[in-house]
């Protein structure tokens, strides 16, 4: 008998664990609540920004966002074979999420620590940057950063 070709439960659970990675008491980091979202954000005006995760590069290499503006950041792993992730704790601590959508799943969480995308998968991150700086992001899959999988997210005031 054929098994349904859905995400395996284990995989989905692992993904949800990663994306719902609420802060767990690091120094100076409070338990996040939805109150972290700046007031008066008009999600109707959210700007869509796309970033591709390829073998082994982020395209574009740099994305520019502005503080206190709403964005839909669409991350797509276009690789047929490789898992890629997007890592930088400073960046993830400098934005507040409204929600993340992955396929039919909507995750409501103000904070995330990293995102891992399986081959040919996509996630939409609804977020508001709250702290300006230039953040160096990278893929932490072994070897990928060395092969150039680094990028920048510039958050401007
Ligand atoms: Cu990678």
Instruction: Classify the beta-strand content into a percent band.
Output: 35-45%
List low-confidence stretches. Answer: 13-26
**Proportion of helical residues:** under 10%
Please state how the strands of the largest beta sheet are arranged side by side. Answer: 2-1-4-9-6-7
The end-to-end distance, rounded to whole angstroms, is 57 Å
CATH topology: Immunoglobulin-like
Averaging pLDDT over every residue, what do you get?
86
Domain unit count: 1
Encode the helix/strand succession as letters: HEEEEEHEEEEEE
Sheet with most strands = 6 strands, mixed
CATH superfamily: Cupredoxins -  blue copper proteins
| Shape annotation | globular
Report on the architecture of this protein:
There is one protein chain. This protein has 157 residues and is mainly beta. The chain has a single domain (43-156), classed as Immunoglobulin-like (Sandwich), CATH 2.60.40.420. It has two helices and eleven strands, in the order αβββββαββββββ. The chain has helices at 9-19, 89-92; strands at 47-54, 57-59, 62-66, 71-77, 84-87, 95-102, 105-107, 114-117, 121-129, 133-138, 150-156. The protein has a six-stranded mixed β-sheet with strand order 2-1-4-9-6-7, with no helix packed on it. A three-stranded mixed β-sheet has the order 3-11-10, with no helix packed on it.
């Amino acid at each position: 008998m054929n098994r349904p070709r859905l995400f395996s439960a284990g995989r989905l659970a692992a993904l949800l664990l990663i994306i719902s990675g609420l802060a767990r008491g690091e120094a100076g980091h409070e338990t996040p609540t939805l109150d972290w979202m700046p007031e008066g954000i008009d999600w109707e005006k959210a700007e869509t920004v796309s970033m591709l995760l390829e073998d082994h590069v982020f395209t574009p290499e740099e994305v520019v966002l502005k503080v206190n503006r709403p964005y839909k950041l669409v991350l797509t792993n276009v690789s047929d074979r490789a898992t890629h992730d997007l890592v930088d704790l400073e960046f993830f601590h400098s934005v507040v999420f409204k929600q993340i959508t992955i396929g039919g799943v909507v995750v409501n969480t103000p904070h995330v620590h990293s995102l891992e995308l399986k081959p040919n998968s996509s996630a939409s991150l609804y977020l508001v940057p709250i702290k300006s700086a230039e953040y160096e992001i990278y893929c932490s899959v072994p070897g990928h950063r060395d092969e150039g999988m680094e990028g920048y997210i510039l958050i401007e005031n």
